[in-house]
Amino acid sequence: MAGNIRLLLLGSIVPIGNTREDDLFEKTYQLRYADFGCVMPPVGCVIQYNRRIVEYLDATFGQEWRKSVRKDVVGYKEK
Predict the structure, then answer these.
(1) Which of 3, 4, 2, 6 is nearest to 53 (CA)?
(2) How confident is the model at residue 14 (pLDDT cuts 50, 70, 90)?
(3) Cα–Cα distance for residue pair 44/19, rounded to 1 Å
(4) Residue 16 included in any domain
(5) Is 72 part of a structural domain of the chain?
């Protein structure tokens, strides 16, 4: 999965830019946040995709990554 991993966000007309913390998270866990803007695939597909990425991150990094992930990731639920 490395290199193509995205955590998907619900978007809007004006995308929310990455913070320094977001950039550090992306670099540390080798993924990117992706915002679809106002046109996105069905939410159910986005949730299923993100849940698979959450499973991957848990299996690869344990629970540590959860402390710094953006809370607006679609379908993400903190344990």
Answers:
(1) 6
(2) low
(3) 27
(4) yes
(5) no
Q: For 29-59, give one letter per residue: b (16+ CB within 10 A) or e.
A: bebebebeeeebeeeeebeebbeebbeebee
Dump pLDDT digits (tens) for 47-63: 999 999 999 999 999 99
Query: Is residue 23 one of the residues assigned to a domain?
Result: yes
CA distance 53 to 5: 7
Number of domains comprising the chain: 1
Which domain range does residue 51 map to?
6-67
44 neighbors 70 (Cβ within 8 angstroms): no
Query: Distance of CA 3 to CAs 6, 29, 30, 36, 78, Å?
Result: 9, 10, 7, 19, 24
The tokens for 36 are 């679809």
